[in-house]
Amino acid sequence: MAVVRIKDFVQNSDFAGSRQNGAKVRNEILEKLKEDNGITLDFIDINLITQSFGDEVLGILTRMHGIEFIKKNIRIHNENDEIKSVLNYVVKYSQKYFKEEAA
Fold first, then answer.
1. CA angle 17, 20, 26 (to 5 degrees)
2. What is the arithmetic mean of pLDDT over 22-33?
3. What is the tens place of the pLDDT at every residue in 48-91?
4. Contact 53, 19 (CB under 8 A)
5. What is the largest CA-CA distance in the chain?
6. Is the pLDDT of residue 41 over 70?
7. Domain 2-95, CATH class in plain words
8. Which of 76, 37, 38, 44 is nearest to 57 (CA)?
9. Comparing C-alpha atoms, which of 81, 92, 17, 4 is closest to residue 49?
């Protein structure tokens, strides 16, 4: 399982706040999933994220691929309670906008 360190995308800060950085993380996830069976998002040394950042990382993936994609492919590590709360919120909110393709 590949590891994506959030700290690598936010320079000199323990705060991940911008949509731009969140989009970079999401793109890294999608690239690594081409080679690996799963991704671990490592929040070591990150103390706070915004809802916008979380939406770019997991919300958009949830709306694109559904909650089962997130559960199957992405693990969260070293997150504090506030980060966990933001990520849970954006995934829960986004899953109602996922439209599964009819088979």
1. 95
2. 97
3. 999 999 999 999 999 999 999 999 999 999 999 999 999 999 99
4. yes
5. 47
6. yes
7. alpha beta
8. 76
9. 17
Give the per-residue pLDDT at 63.
95
Mean pLDDT (the chain) is: 94
Distance CA 6, CA 65 (A): 22
User: Partners of 76 in the beta sheet?
Assistant: 41
DSSP letter for each residue of the chain: -EEEEGGGGSTT-SEE--HHHHHHHHHHHHHHHTTSS-EEEE-TT--EE-HHHHIIIIIHHHHHH-HHHHHHHEEEES--HHHHHHHHHHHHHHHTT--PPP-
Q: In whole angstroms, what is the distance from residue 65 CA to residue 34 CA?
A: 15
Angle in degrees, CA 95, 96, 100, rounded to 5: 75
